[in-house]
Amino acid sequence: MEVIEETRRYPFCVVWTPIPFLSWVIPLIGHVGITTSTGIIRDFSGSFYVAEDDMAFGYPTKYWQLDIRTVNGGPKTWDKAVNLASIEYFNRMHNLLSDNCHSHVGMALSLMNYNQSKNWNMIKLALCIFLFGKHVSFIAWLKTWGPFIIFVVLCFGIYAYDKYI
Fold first, then answer.
1. Which residues have C-beta within 8 Å of that of residue 156, sequence separation ≥ 6?
2. What is residue 110's three-state secondary structure?
3. CA torsion sign, 7 to 32 to 126 to 151?
4. What residues form the membrane-spanning segments (predicted)?
């Protein structure tokens, strides 16, 4: 299935959105969710809660569309893994550093044995989204990178001001 940006449907995708302040300083860090075969977003938004089509920090700005051909059993296995991971995370306490939205998505990918891998984790997932993710639009790119660029320019400006004046 194709990504339909107008209706915000991203089938077989990992989706990403920036976390205010945190992503502005470190753009690699953000909030992720995983979609079903029909593009419905599931994300571990907080303790004992997995949202459906209501990401904690707004609409996705990036998506990484995965190859369903690398999942034995196809869409049925994909949806089952997303559902099982979501059920598991309905019973978990959210922890920013160790058991979070990345862990939820990693569990789903591991359960479906995506790309013959059962060891998806936060670091691997964050790097893959950063390297292979596509921005939804130019505005989404600005939402992702704009605050970081402003932050860097301000830091250099303050440094230059202190050094040369």
1. none
2. helix
3. positive
4. 145-161
Whether 92 contacts 48, CB under 8 Å:
yes
- Domain extents in the chain: 13-164
Helices 101-111 and 122-132: angle between axes, nearest 10 degrees = 90
Q: For 122-146, write each residue's pLDDT tens digit.
A: 899 999 999 999 999 999 999 999 9
Distant-in-sequence contacts of 139-147, Cβ < 8 A, 24+ apart: 140/60, 140/61, 140/62, 141/61, 143/18, 143/61, 144/18, 144/23, 144/27, 144/30, 144/61, 144/62, 145/27, 147/18, 147/23, 147/24
Where do we find the tokens 């994909």?
78
